[in-house]
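tl;dr need the bound structure. longer version: we got a ligand (magnesium ion) that a collaborator sent over and nobodys looked at where it sits. i said id run it. heres the input, straight from their email, havent touched it
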Amino acid sequence: MPGFFRRRSTVDLNADDSDPLSRVLLPSIYETLEEREARIALQLEEKKRSDAIDEEINRQKLENKKAPRCVRVLLLGQSESGKSTTLKNFQLIHSPKAFRNERASWRAVIQLNIVRSVRLILDTITDAHEKTMLPGGRSGQATTDGPTPTVTPELLKLRMRLLPLQQVEEALLRKMTPEGSAEFEATHLSPVTNLPYRIRGGKFREIAINSTAQWKGAFGRLIATARTSIESAAQIDFDDANDPGVILHACSEDIVRLWSDPVVKRLLNMQHIRLESMAGFFLDSIERVTALRYVPTDDDILRARLKTLGVSEHRFMLKAAAWAPYFDNMDAIIFLAPISGFDEVRNVGKSKHNYSIADNDIGFIQVLSEDTSVNRLEDSFKLWEKIISNPLLKETQIVLFLNKIDLLKEKLQAGVQFNHWVLSYRDKPNDYDSISLYLKRKFGILLKQHSPIPRVFYCHLTSMTDAKSTQQILVNVKDMVIRQNLQSSNLV
Ligand SMILES: Nc1nc2c(ncn2[C@@H]2O[C@H](COP(=O)(O)OP(=O)(O)OP(=O)(O)O)[C@@H](O)[C@H]2O)c(=O)[nH]1
Ligand SMILES: [Mg+2]
């Protein structure tokens, strides 16, 4: 009966008299027959309980041995680098059913993304209109970017007709971030990070959800009231009169008209706002995503933007593998650097910022005169340097994803000059292959210079919104992490 009396402090029938504890616990010599029977019954009962506990421990041990192992991967990178999108890709590979079950929640995020893109345009129109209404203000006034276009009566009417979208935004926000919660506060404090500084500092704020918040639950409730049995759409109650999709659908044509208006294009250009390369851009697919029975595709979900606050943990089980039980844990970091951000700035708060990395020969142009902004590519270099030089992480494998290559290609094709922003690039060719190779080398050199111990440089060029191309990279990374850990455990 191993384990029985060791755990429970009752009397051992075979207790050793020399053990002082056993002596104390021995039955009294004055014990009556009834007392003796009660005592033995109690002991038998406790033994049963103890055996059950032993059995459970053994069962768990056995299960742990058989169970597939978790790969512990930390996703790091500046805001909007693509961490959440990478996580979505992992979900898509390892638990596609769970990923697709969240379509109702992502549909709401996409609706919010649309409404906020529209609001940004409407705010831009309002600002331009107000300027012309000021005393002395005149449309057609020349600026360094050419004459300010006139806000047409047609545009002002469109703005009126799109006002109901404001209610949609408020309703969605209320649902995602209940009033009084930290998320609600966060929603109103986090600045949009990829807009020109003057807009970021202003009224346009980005919604942020605390990673621990169960925001998807608000939309999960729709499942209970769903009346359709189509598998992929089963979580959306299309007959709900309060569904924001109804208003969005009604505004669909006006949104298309607004987005294709040449005056709008001109106003956005003058403000240096490129909505197409901003997170959560869906204006080119308005007809599809505002259709009455719209269900987000996998790609839509990858493109949906919802800022994360805090750290979140997700677990994916690997399929059982023969080697799995042999080692405890493996840790790796995936570091995301959004390299399309070479001409973008990020607000870093009040501190003064040094705009060049003196010891590694990468010079960045000072993008704005405000000392609170930093070039996003430079930001990635600095964060990379911090992570790779951290002594606590010296044994951790690091995989670098140079992300958003699709946007990088688009920008270069549109004629944006890389060397205008990254001075050290000098007069090398302004094409994708040369620039991506250049950046790869720069990150590699930093790793060599700053890693406390020599580390292999794993680097991939990625586009996290492209599930197909990403899938193979993530599978390769997973295999590599596993292989490395096997090697360090001397198992291969
Ligand atoms: N075009 C393009 N967009 C991308 C790519 N990777 C991510 N995105 C988009 O960029 C936006 C930001 O990505 P997220 O994954 O939310 O970024 P994050 O690192 O989690 O940002 P925080 O939560 O603010 O820390 C999302 O709208 C993504 O869809 C990419 O490779 N190409
Ligand atoms: Mg995130």
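gonna send this back to them w/ a short note. The CA atoms of residues 302 and 465 lie 5 Å apart.
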